[in-house]
Write the structure tokens for this entry.
Amino acid sequence: MDVLPNMPPASLAIPRLIAHRGAKANAPENTLAAFARAREEGALWVEFDVKLTADGVPVVIHDEMLERTTDGRGAVRSTSLAALKRLDAGAWFAPAFRGERVPTLVEALDLFARLDMGFNLEIKPCPGREVETARTTIAVLDAHWPANRPAPVLSSFKAEALAAVRDLTPRYALGYLAEKLGQGWIEAAQRLGCKTVHPGWHSLTEKQIGAAKAAGFPLLVWTVNEPARARQLLAWGVDALITDNPGDLAAAIER
Ligand code: G3P
Ligand code: MG
């Protein structure tokens, strides 16, 4: 296994702020409305989560269960696309968003192309569906995301999902997603062919940031909503902040 410095693709142009699940503070997360709102707030990229329906269609939703972000009940993995599409994914957030649906990955990609946005797609498989979710996601991206569009980053907490993409295609930059950067993370990320690293901010230290930079990994840190924290992380060399509130955070850190 090589331990050469990581080399992110030259085409990877990651903006400083990325909208977490869309502009999650101001619109229902992981909906087309949240992605459009992110763009209105000035975000050039969004982060969002992909899982498979019962019939194997990649859709944009965070939780394994439907209850928190829709008016449905039960598990995403046992709900068909047709049944999922009947659910409301906006009213729980505010009445003005009634009628929002859980988007398919294809619908999200169509919107990003229309709005000229880039994205960090988090492969968030239901347990046991890691490889299937990764492979299906790649098939949809290959068919619907032209090479002349901004190169996306595909991240996951699940090594099996990252390895499945690594073994399938070199076309997409992989992101090593972790709550914290534990012992041996650089070797693990390199083994998985990752080009970027995505740690949570809570336990991240300046020293770890330095080590990641020395190994050639751009850092995309989540979920950063506090201006003081954002300024500190950027001063330490973090490349991008994944935030619920891109408009307000941009205004605050520019002040
Ligand atoms: O990709 C960064 C972040 O979204 C990971 O956590 O739970 O918000 O998907 P979560
Ligand atoms: Mg996510």
Observations:
- The chain has a mean pLDDT of 95.
- The pocket of magnesium ion (ligand 2) is lined by residues 47, 49, 122 (CB under 6 Å).
